[in-house]
């Protein structure tokens, strides 16, 4: 029996519906259940062939548990090693590498020194920064947000340099990024599951939370196809099995705003009935695919092309060294 587990926190509608959907399909040798953790011993094989992770971003114990499970062969969705290393600023750099437009973005050092550091720890950092160059590049209005954050925590909309310096004082030890504000004509949130299943959802972030998926923008089919292409490029590069990508469309060009969402909102009350049904059905089918393809004890994780290309790249030839012959006579 291959077991599919789902690890979750306070959410209820998606995890319960996911478990019921997998089990309702009656696939021989496949069953789903909420993950139950009674003991975590290093290197001991986990009972689950597949685990869908919905909460480890907030619970370090779960993150360590998932890495241990993955090391013994569990297919964890999403890859806990990559998710631990990933952050939003790198996401933008990778997006440019794969040809997806993103807002102009600059990384900012934390306002306060990290723990166990002093000013001497920043010998290589110019002071002051080239603020004039930064403001000219990004422009105003702009958004300032944590370079590795999520859930719209510590996000500021800024209208001027003085506004930035004022708000920067509230960020403490957070490493922030300053990002161009996109004045958009339409906005979309796109689910991607398994690096191949894409659902484009009309989304209005300026609406109250319960009405954000009630939007309906009149856009050409060509724009939808472009967004599908961009969603796949990003998720293939990052290696996410379960993610959402948000696009702000300006002058007909979809600009990727946020695409580091490996535990995206899937609650029925927020995404709506039709989107909820798609996520539940698609996630169930994909988890079953992964369980059937699972090889016990092997690496069953998904690695993005950014990592795979680096691993498969030929090693650089070692530099030849020449030794001078001794002119001393024996």
TrEMBL record:
Membrane-crossing segments per the record: none
GO terms under biological process: SOS response
Keyword annotations from UniProtKB, A to Z: ATP-binding, Nucleotide-binding
A Gene Ontology term for the protein's cellular component: cytoplasm
Residue stretches making up the ATP-grasp domain: 92-284
InterPro entries in UniProt: ATP-grasp (IPR011761)
Top-level taxon of origin: Bacteria
One Gene Ontology term of the molecular function aspect: ribosomal S6-glutamic acid ligase activity
Protein name: ATP-grasp domain-containing protein
């Amino acid at each position: 029996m291959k077991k599919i587990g789902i690890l979750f926190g306070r959410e209820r509608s998606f995890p319960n519906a996911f478990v019921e959907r997998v089990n309702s399909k009656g696939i021989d040798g496949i069953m789903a259940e909420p993950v139950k953790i009674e003991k975590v011993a290093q290197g001991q094989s986990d009972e689950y062939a597949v685990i869908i992770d919905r909460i480890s971003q907030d619970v370090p114990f779960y993150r360590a548990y998932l890495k241990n499970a993955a090391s013994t062969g569990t297919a964890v969705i999403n890859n806990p090693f990559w998710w631990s290393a990933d952050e939003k600023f790198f996401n933008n750099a990778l997006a440019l590498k794969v040809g997806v437009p993103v807002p102009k973005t600059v990384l900012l050092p934390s306002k306060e020194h990290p723990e166990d550091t002093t000013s001497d720890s920043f010998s290589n950092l110019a002071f002051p920064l080239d603020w004039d160059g930064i403001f000219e590049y990004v422009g105003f209005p702009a958004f300032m947000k944590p370079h590795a954050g999520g859930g719209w925590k510590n996000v500021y909309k800024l209208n001027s340099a003085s506004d930035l310096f004022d708000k920067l004082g509230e960020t403490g030890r957070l490493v922030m990024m300053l990002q161009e504000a996109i004045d958009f004509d339409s906005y979309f949130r796109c689910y991607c599951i398994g690096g191949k299943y894409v659902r484009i959802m009309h989304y209005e972030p300026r609406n109250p939370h319960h009405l954000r998926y009630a939007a309906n923008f009149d856009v050409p089919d060509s724009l939808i196809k472009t967004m599908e292409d961009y969603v796949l490029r990003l998720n293939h590069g990052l290696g996410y099995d379960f993610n959402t990508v948000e696009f702000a469309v300006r002058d007909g060009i979809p600009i990727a705003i946020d695409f580091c969402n490996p535990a995206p909102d899937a609650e029925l009350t927020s995404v709506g009935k039709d989107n909820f049904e798609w996520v539940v059905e698609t996630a169930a089918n994909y988890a079953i695919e992964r369980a059937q393809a699972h090889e016990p004890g092997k690496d069953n994780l998904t690695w993005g092309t950014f990592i795979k290309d680096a691993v498969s790249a030929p090693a650089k030839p070692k530099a030849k060294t020449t030794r001078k012959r001794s002119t001393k006579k024996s």
